[in-house]
Write a structure and sequence with these properties.
The protein has 97 residues and is α+β, with helices and mostly antiparallel strands. It has a single domain, classed as AF2212/PG0164-like (Elongation Factor Tu (Ef-tu), domain 3, Beta Barrel), CATH 2.40.30. The chain is 15% helix and 47% strand. The chain is built from 2 helices and 7 strands; from the N terminus they run E-E-E-H-E-E-E-H-E. It has a 7-stranded antiparallel β-sheet with strand order 1-7-4-5-6-3-2. 19% of the residues are buried.
């Protein structure tokens, strides 16, 4: 499954060293159902993400508001000039399906 969305980058309140972008809520139920078979720790689902010219593999994590959060590695932020508050376009594909 492939998804595309725009989102605003923010720091995780529990640990400000982590930068995240949330997927739209409309994808939550579908991904949660698909991910049921391949779910990992904390309900995470593995993905391959593309932002600009940068691609990387990571996991998305569900939160209590009914969204999945995509963590943004420092190397990705640096390569794409992403800062807290940036609005970014993300393409991602679920892995292991």
């Amino acid at each position: 499954m492939k998804y595309e969305f725009r989102g605003k980058v923010y720091r995780w309140a529990s640990n400000p060293a982590f930068f995240l972008v949330n997927m739209p809520k409309k994808y939550f139920k579908e991904i949660a159902e698909l991910g049921e078979v391949n779910r990992r720790g904390w309900g995470s689902v593995r993905v391959h993400a593309f932002i600009g010219r940068t691609s990387f593999t990571t996991s998305i994590f569900p939160d209590s508001s009914g969204q999945y959060s995509l963590p943004l590695k420092a190397a990705v932020r640096k390569a794409e000039g992403i800062e807290e508050g940036s609005t970014i376009f993300v393409q991602l594909e679920l892995v292991d399906f």
